[in-house]
Design a protein that fits this description.
The structure is a single chain. The protein has 685 residues and is of the alpha/beta class. Among the domains are: 92 residues, Ubiquitin-like (UB roll) (Roll), CATH 3.10.20.740; 167 residues, FAD/NAD(P)-binding domain (3-Layer(bba) Sandwich), CATH 3.50.50.60; 139 residues, FAD/NAD(P)-binding domain (3-Layer(bba) Sandwich); 78 residues, Alpha-Beta Plaits (2-Layer Sandwich), CATH 3.30.70. Helices cover 29% and strands 18% of the residues. Helix 4 runs antiparallel to helix 5, helix 4 packs across helix 18 and helix 5 crosses helix 8.
């Protein structure tokens, strides 16, 4: 006998549902999603989570959609003000007691949010090509960036709370090198969007930002051309990073892959000489500016215009004759690159002049250490005040002796002069590695900040100030934008944002959030003593006496055995179920404040009594789906609630060996869990 059909309205959509159906099931059949966590169509209504509340016309109370049957003529609003307010409160209560990390701190700290934990896990399993594919979802230069990145991800790695961080950057470089050796180095799969097919995009600048933007737009079906003023693509990766750190053959292989995707690479093309920015903009559907920061910052002292005085990036690009005694001014990685390059160019004495102490140097410790091994001397608490000039050339550098005073806004103690104390350092060459800035020539039609950088809004879009506005919008990214020059992975992050903004423009939609709402554990409450000590793998480098005489790569990288061991040190902080988690998907939609109602967590830890399933009670939200599935669907009843009120937890009761085997073969509870509280210990989904 046919069931009676009930006519009702949900969110202004008139639908019919079978008599006895709930509001939630009726909405689902009509393609209307009502947030829910404790619902499964095979199970009887339960209503534990309280997130599916809706408003029904004529009813003063909010009703739980999963447990309320439909009625003739019912008018339902799923997103009314009262329902949304109650739903958001329910999610805040749940998230306040959800002690888990959606995303690992390594990924969160990476400016480009590379999926560090995922590719490290793939390396641990020997899946090197898969690991490289994972990196290349985010950017196309894994071997290059793996070699030069100062790895902020490792600063956040919680393995450092046990003994030392995982070598995340070195693992990235290893996987890409290995994938290339295996012939498995390829672009990440295309994500063609119909709104992008056939769209023409010009990218000005062929550095890490411009190449990444071109790569991501090509992956989405755009026809892309990259214009660059230098003879070869790569930007600062090619012209600002020495060969001993980044072999150009490695960079070339990655650029060749981008070219093989159909991206047109046009070199020796200077804006303002070969064409104006307006000329290029007229012929495309969108323009991305990523022209970098190619001008060295001056010291603003007397004599710095003398022969033999170079900017840091100019010196690294040109490698001029430098003489026997060289001073490099600065304390960052560019200064380390410059002083170590000077050693390799034949200088007999190389000094690094820095106005603070070694402890305040922003350069990586390994770069400082290797520079010392190669014979570089450091002059700390010294600040240049004059280049002493003789016959138009540098003859010496006058240094003001400094001391550390009060802390600045970043917590670093400010260097202050010691009255009347100076030092004269006789020199043949001075290299100023104190920063770099944007060159605005040819880009005058763009809006600029007070710092001389291109002013881009949060959608990476730039205001066009010229008479010929045209139809194509302008986007910008990389070292030339807003805050100015930074590390390569920051430029790459901006490029991904710009590519997303271009795609959103073509699709006439909002730019998606990169991370949004997530759950994060409180690090100070984690007991790191439970993890056994596993020392970080030691990467072999060439001896200092050998390497200081050439530009051959210094690091020998990780071996396969070392890489798999090192990747196995990962604590797997981020949730295995993040991409499929219903809890965080709905929390994001509601922009839930995950910490507003955070207090004491309910009791429980991680246990493996279910043999093939790991249960993380800290992530459990007490929806009881696992208990009900085990009872009603699997017919086993091996899980139950223990305790009362807030302290209630779920525990298994495996009464026999047969029950253990049945549980190991079933795994229905894992499929039903709406969070990452349950995880298969083998054959993970």
């Amino acid at each position: 006998m046919d069931k009676k059909m009930i006519a009702l309205e949900i969110d202004s959509v008139k639908i019919e549902a079978e008599e006895g159906a709930t509001i939630l099931s009726a909405a689902k059949s009509a393609g209307i999603d009502i947030p829910n966590l404790c619902y499964l169509k095979e199970l009887s209504p339960y209503g534990a989570c309280g997130v599916c509340v809706v408003e029904v016309e004529g009813c003063p109370k909010l009703l739980r959609a999963c447990a309320t049957p439909v009625k003739e003529g019912m008018v339902v609003r799923t997103n009314g003000e009262r329902a949304l307010k109650a739903r958001k409160l329910a999610f805040e209560l749940i998230m306040g007691d959800h002690d888990g990390d959606c995303i690992g701190p390594c990924t969160l700290e990476c400016p480009a949010h590379t999926k560090c934990q995922k590719y490290v896990g793939e390396i641990a399993q020997g899946r090197f090509a898969d690991a490289t594919d994972t990196v290349m979802e985010t950017f196309p230069l894994p071997a290059s960036i793996g070699r030069v990145c100062p790895h902020p991800c490792e600063n956040a790695c919680r393995r450092g709370k046990v003994e030392s961080p995982v070598s995340i950057a070195a693992l990235k470089a290893f996987a890409a090198d290995q994938a290339r050796k295996e012939g498995a180095f390829r672009a990440a799969p295309a994500v063609v969007e119909k709104s992008c097919e056939g769209k023409r995009v010009a990218v000005v600048g062929g550095g890490p930002a411009g190449l990444t933007a071109a790569y991501q737009l090509a992956r989405r079906g755009c026809s892309v051309a990259v214009y660059d003023q230098m003879p070869a693509m790569g930007g600062m990766l090619r012209y600002g990073i020495p060969e001993y750190r980044l072999p150009k053959a490695v960079l070339d292989a990655e650029i060749d892959l981008i070219s093989s995707m159909g991206v047109k690479l046009i070199n020796n093309f200077k804006i303002g000489r070969d064409a104006t920015l307006a000329d290029i903009k007229r012929d495309v559907d969108a323009l991305v500016v990523a022209n970098g920061a190619w001008k060295s910052s001056p010291m603003r002292i007397a004599g710095e215009d003398a022969l033999g005085v170079y900017g840091g990036i100019d010196f690294l690009r040109e490698r001029p004759q430098i003489g026997e005694r060289v001073a490099v001014v600065g304390g960052g990685n560019t200064a380390m690159d410059a002083c170590r390059t000077a050693v390799r160019l034949g200088a007999k004495e190389v000094f690094v002049v820095y106005r603070r102490t070694r402890a305040e140097m922003p350069a990586e410790e390994i770069e400082i250490k290797e520079a010392e091994e190669e014979g570089v001397s450091f002059k700390f608490l010294r600040n240049p005040v004059e280049v002493v000039v003789s016959d138009g050339r540098v003859a010496a550098l006058k240094l003001q002796v400094m001391k550390l005073g009060e802390s600045d806004e970043k917590g670093r103690r400010k260097p202050v002069p010691v009255e009347g104390e100076f030092e004269i350092l006789d020199l043949d060459c001075v290299i100023m590695a104190i920063g770099q800035k944007n060159d605005p020539e040819g880009f005058e039609n763009l809006s600029f900040t007070d710092r001389g950088t291109i002013a881009a809004n949060s959608r990476s879009q730039v205001k066009w100030l010229g008479d010929d506005a045209g139809d194509a919008p302008v986007f910008a990214c990389g070292d030339a934008v807003n805050r100015g020059a930074g590390i390569a992975i920051q430029a790459i992050a901006g490029a991904n944002d710009a590519a997303d903004a271009v795609v959103a423009y073509f699709a006439a939609r909002e730019v998606p959030e990169r991370i949004g709402t997530i759950s994060q554990r409180e690090v100070e409450k984690i007991d790191f003593s439970i993890y056994p000590q596993k020392e970080r793998a030691s990467i072999e480098v060439r001896p200092a006496d050998e390497r200081r005489g050439d530009f051959v790569e210094v690091s020998k990288g990780l071996t396969c055995e070392q890489a798999m061991y090192e990747a196995g040190r990962c604590l797997e902080c981020g949730c295995h179920d993040y991409s499929e988690c219903k809890l965080i998907r709905y929390a994001k939609e509601l922009k839930t404040d995950c910490k507003r109602l955070r207090g004491e967590f309910h009791p429980g830890g991680v246990e493996k009594a279910l043999v093939s399933i790991e249960r993380n009670q800290r992530k459990c939200i007490s929806c009881n789906l696992c208990v009900r599935v085990c009872e009603e669907k699997a017919g086993k009843g091996l899980l139950g609630l223990v305790g009362r009120g807030f302290t209630t937890i779920i525990r298994p009761e495996l009464r026999s060996e047969e029950a253990v085997m049945q549980c190991a073969q079933c795994k229905m509870c894992v499929d039903a869990c709406p969070t990452g509280a349950l995880r298969l210990l083998c054959n993970e989904k």
